[in-house]
Structure formats: structure tokens, C-alpha cells
Amino acid sequence: MTATSPSEAPLPALARRPGTGAGAWRRRLADPAVGIWLAALGVTLLGWIVVTARGGEFLTQPNITGILQNCVALGLIALGQTLVILTGSLDLSVAFLASLGTLVAAETMAGQDGNVVLAVLAVLALCTAVGLANGLIVTGLKVNAFIATLGVALILRGWIEDNYTGPAGAVPATFRRLGYDRVGPVPLAVLLLAAVAFALWFVCRRTRLGHHMYATGGDEHAARLSGVRTRRTVVAAHVLCSLCVGVAALFLAARFGAGSPWAGTEASYDLESIAAVVLGGTILAGGRGSVVGTLGGVMVLAVLDSVFNQLAVDPFFKNVLRGVIIIAAVAVYTRRRRSARRNA
User: Fold this and answer.
1) Would you tell me how many other CB atoms lie within 10 Å of the CB of residue 16?
2) Nearest CA to 260 among 271, 269, 248, 249?
């Protein structure tokens, strides 16, 4: 019998290594965050083909920059919405809060550079108060999150309609650079979105608060028995959500150059943010989802908007198509989850 040299020894099977092999790849592809980003890539390629066939130009720097720019406000609001949905809650006040935030920012700035810091603090303070109110109504008064935040939205709407009939205030030119400056082809505001996304990813994945959010949304009763302060967790999620809306409001004020009573409602950021979150794989019942998936959902919606605009699709029919796509995407994801459970 001859000895086998180390170089001739059989290599261990790839499937034995943890995290490798066909099974690992299937698990990664089954991840909703990976799926939605692959879908975003597919929608982009399909949009490029369709627009090019119609004689247009899609993958150009101005168009790509425009798509990224359109991701910012919706992305910031959707990231905040992700947190409250993870806890099993919801926030329908984001659209009116964004509108009011632009008005407070522009009126406080009054076109003066020296008022920028005060305006930023005022908007963040307003949003903190609204988020705290939402959280306390849901947890303290035991009002369903849908009804509670809808009620707060109506209060904000009444205040706006009673005090404003059109744009108000003025944003100084230096602050408007947030809405228009670029770093190469990348809008400066996209870097702000990336910073907020990373911060929230860190909160969700690396902090006790993030773990408590998942636990509360997964099973509030079990989480409470495990020592999680579920009420405090839900309130914190609502406050963080409203702060994200505040950052979005500051960006919108920089884009418009003034406060707009319709900044959030015309873009339907309440429903759009929920759609982006659900597209990204976050379950409305709570307990499962990710910041990365939400960003993928935002990208899909932004690319679809760009394609529809290039093709001059009727706005009403555009909403029909987006609704069909959202329903189909969620249906496919739900079916895949059920299949994975049966095969587990």
C-alpha cells in the first residue's frame, strides 16, 4: 500500500463547507432583499429595451441621476416606515408630516443662511413630537395603528389647510444645494439617504432596540414575557420613523426652494412608502423585513416611474400598472415563502 501525499489527498466536498454549495445559493436567492434587487435589475434592463425600441434613451447619465434623485424622499420615508412595520405598527401620517415639515423649514429659514440650523432643529423637534404622539396613542390608548395615525394625519391636514393656501417661506441658496448638487453623477442627497440607511441598518441588526423591534413584531406577547419593553419599542420606532420624515421634508424644501402644503400628499408618500416596504419583503404583520429590501423596493418604483415617463404613459393608467406590479410581486413572494415552509 502506498502512502498518499498531501497534494494527492481528496479535497473535501464543497457541500460540506458551511455557507457554500447549491443549497446556500438557493437560500440567498430566496432572501426577499436579494430578490427585490434582482427584480430592480430586471426592471431596469427591460425598461432600457422598451424605451430604446421606442426611440428613446434610458441608460443616460441625466436619466440615471434623475432616478437616483427620485429615490431620496421616498427612500427616507420608506426607511422610517420599515421600522414601525417591523414592530407590527403602521404610520399613515407621513405624507402630511412631510408637507408640514417643508413649511416649517422654509418659514423658519426665511431665505437666511443664519436660520438654517434653527430650521433643521425645528423640523426635527416637530417630527419627534408627532412620532411620540403616534407611539403613545398606539401603545397607551390601545388605538389601532391604522386609525391612530390616520387621525393624526387628519389633524395635520386640518392645520395645513387652515393656515396655508400655497407655498410659503424661502430656502436660502446654500441649503438648496442639498437638493441639486452632485458628487460626479451621484446626487448629494443620495449620500444622505445612504447614511440614514446605514444608520438604521445598524440599529436593526446590531443594537438591542433593533432586536426588540423584530421580537415585538414577531410575537408581542412572547417578547413581553421575555422581558422586552414592547410599548417603549413601538414608541421608539414611531419616533425614528417621524425623524426620517423630517429629513425627507428638509430635502424636499431644498428641492422646492419653499415650503409646499402638497409636498407629501401629491406624491402619496403614505401609500408609496408602504408599497416600497412590502415590495422589499417586510411583512405587514411585523417581525420580518430589512432596510436593504426596502431600498430595493424604492429603486423598483423609481425605475418604473422613469420608464412610464419616457413612454408618456397616462398618469391614471400608470397607477393601474404600478398597482398590478405590486400585487403580483407580493403574491409571488408569498407563494415562495409558503413553498419554502413546506420544503423545510
Assistant:
1) 8
2) 249
pLDDT digits (tens, 9 = 90+) for 29-57: 667 788 899 989 999 999 999 999 998 89
Between CA 176 and CA 181, with CA 178 as vertex, the angle to 5 degrees is 95
In degrees, rounded to 5, the angle at the alpha carbon of residue 114 between the alpha carbons of residues 262 and 160 is: 20
Query: What is the β-pairing status of strands 186-187 and 182-183?
Result: antiparallel
Closest CA to 73 of 229, 300, 254: 254
How far is 89 from 131, CA to CA, in rounded Å? 12
Report pTM: 0.90
Closest listed residue to residue 90, CA positions, set 239, 249, 238 = 238
Q: How far apart are CA 296 and CA 76, in angstroms?
A: 13
**With contact defined as beta carbons under 8 Å apart, do 273 and 74 qualify?**
yes
Give DSSP secondary structure letters for 47-72: HHHHHHHTT---SSHHHHHHHHHHHH
Q: Write phi, then psi, for 283 (nearest 5 degrees).
A: -85, 135
Sign of CA dihedral 179, 278, 34, 317: negative
Q: What pLDDT digit, counting tens, does each position of 113-164 carry?
A: 999 999 999 999 999 999 999 999 999 999 999 999 999 999 999 999 999 9
Give the 3-state secondary structure of residue 2.
coil
